[in-house]
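Task: complex structure prediction.
Instruction: return structure tokens for all chains below.
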Amino acid sequence: MSTQPVPKPVAGASGFVDDRIGAGNFLRRNLRKIFPDHWSFLLGEIALYSFIILLLTGTFLTFFFKPSMGHVEYTGSYGPLQGVMMSEAYASSLGISFDVRGGLLMRQMHHWAALLFIGGMMVHALRVFFTGAYRKPRELNWIIGVLLLTLALAEGLTGYSLPDDLLSGAGLRITEGVAISLPLVGTWITFFLFGGEYPGEDVISRFYSLHILLIPGILLALISAHMILMWVQKHTQMPGKGRTNENVVGAPFYPAFMVKAGAYFMFTFGVIALLGTFAQINPIWLFGPYTPADISAGSQPDFYMGFLEGSLRLMPAWEINVLGFTLPMSVLIPALVPMGIVMTGLALYPFIEQWVTGDRREHHIVDRPRNNPHRTSIGMAAITFYGVLWLLGANDEISSVFHVSLNWTTYVGRVLIFVGPAIAYYVTYRICLGLQRADAAVIGHGVESGVIKRLPHGEYIEVHVSPNEAIEAHMRGKEPIPVVTGGGGGDDDGIPSKAMRSPLGKLRTKMSAAYGGEKIPLDDGHGHGEGHEEHTAVGQGGDEKSLTH
Amino acid sequence: MEFNKESGISVNRITAGRRHPLARYAVLLLALALIGGVYTVALTVSSSRQADAAIASGRADDVAEGKKLFEQSCASCHGRNAEGTASGPTLIGVGAASVDFQVSSGRMPLANPGAQAPRKPPAPWVNEDTVRQLGAYIQSLGGGPAVPTAEQVDAAKGDKSKGGELFRANCIQCHNFVGSGGALTQGKYAPPLHEATEKQIYEAMITGPQAMPVFNDSIITPEQKRDMIAYIVGVREEPNPGGAGLGRIGPVTEGLVAWVVGLSLLSLAAIWITAKRRQAK
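Output:
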């Protein structure tokens, strides 16, 4: 390729490596790998880079943290806690905050990075969901993602508990309450986890092992698998000009994508460092040491646990006593049901969708959210479900900041948790169809040019021009969602196969007909319902529109 | 010898007198007279001193002045003799501390009835003298907790560490870990303690205003109350070493910042980085 000879030191060293591990061949194949460009494709990298920062800052914190519940008297430099008895974990966390150079910054960056890690995962997962990027062949990678999110919650919970301050103790208490409420095994699990009666003396050191060794190890392995699969399967791309299911249009990994990714790492690092410097997070010295008898108003978990807190707050009191056993439903249901709905729903969605649509094809071009209105509506309904729980997890702060009755926030929440998702579903569905109509209008009539033309008989019309090539290609990337027909047995006689005649099969046919198909055809010209009158074309080809209508 | 003789006689005389059958009654009478006399004198002296002090500082007619103020600003809800009405509780026995707390913090007189009286700028007629007069009147009706002395509420004399432990054990379940306030049921709330004066904090503890329980001196001693005041005042004046305090209400605002600032900035960065897009040739 290059006409200039490679300098000898470079050629020698690279030749040495290449001869032994064959890196040259590997790099030649992979450095030119093409990555498609879209801003939303970078959202997952927020989580990736936050994870790297978490590893670095976390390592720093382990140098000074003592994972012990041994009782000591505080003698550090924070005045208002002088002489107070506390655990070594809490004392060493205070030490990191006040007596270790740069310790507070590291602690705050670690915590902000944790929030952005999970926040980044969430927005990334939403991007993948709403564009249908989880479809074949990427279902496994989607499931790895769901596992990563679940593990990240566990990682967050264990880390949040480590400083053994009063606020984290409240979270630990709820964890204990959930564990002990499990039927049959609850008591065993609790005593195993805490090494005896709550709070015991073991939980901090056990959470420490989980937090710094086991969970990050699994996270790292799964993140690697996630990246490798993404690399091997190639990244999905948005519909657009020249993009097909067989190609990838974008920039090569080296140098273009690498520079972008590197820059994005710096951005993530920068935002986390800014937050760590200018926004105080988890001021454990204000909370005081954990005592099971104390609790503060406004005790909240970190944001990613907020939906569980909210479900606990919404749940009415309900307890079942059978044969001397107590089933505390008011703890069991809020702890397990919303989490189960969200996580199981996420994990199963690709397979449910496949079953409903009967679509077994590979997809490398993603959908625009409007083009699969039911999926988008289901997603928005789920976001509303999650969002109501999340919001209600902070109902005491909402009540005290906005001066509304705490009881009413709960009553409203109990209704909203059922009604909200339904409204969200309906509204989203209508918006999607509206956007599809808008697309059809652009394809059918072109875009408004802003040029007003006066016709010989005096009428004014606005000239419509055909859309930009790229935009048109983007819109034309829409494809109808496959439908399982009643005669899906393969016969042409129109008689449904035996499987499709079962109640489940009938349900499947019905769901498929509702879910799939083409709701608003792009090229149907003027065949789109109520919009018809407005779009009456004047002149030739429908590219001009009357103003007088 | 003569001396001895004389003294011997006198000794004998006294001894004889002591043994007189009436002696014991005389002694008893004398003792009673002495105690009664001293008591009376002492009482007169002290009461005249109090009266003098009251006159000197213009408090002689505090009760009368207080009654006038009460009739002007309080009686419509609390009744003409503070006996209480359907719209306001009786004030007999609530004490001057209650008056000082409610009026100096602007909670009373109430602007409009609601779940709870909010803190607000005090009414124009409220000043040190009028609060004292009103307090004296209420105190005269049925006693109750008195206004604490300046020394009792001096934060500088309290122990922050001990106060912090007491604060965490008794106050934060409603008032939040740094006294940022919190919600209670049915629109009631534990107000933030940012604006409360040291005296008001003490008075709130001994009188239990609105939804707050009373922390009397046998539950929390006056010294412990002063320790708590030292902690509350200390912690609210303490700077936030980690940057902006985000309202000091815990993870809710932190989560909000993570999304609104953190993820928004990073999304904008992603849009910026990918603004120049490669097209297929």
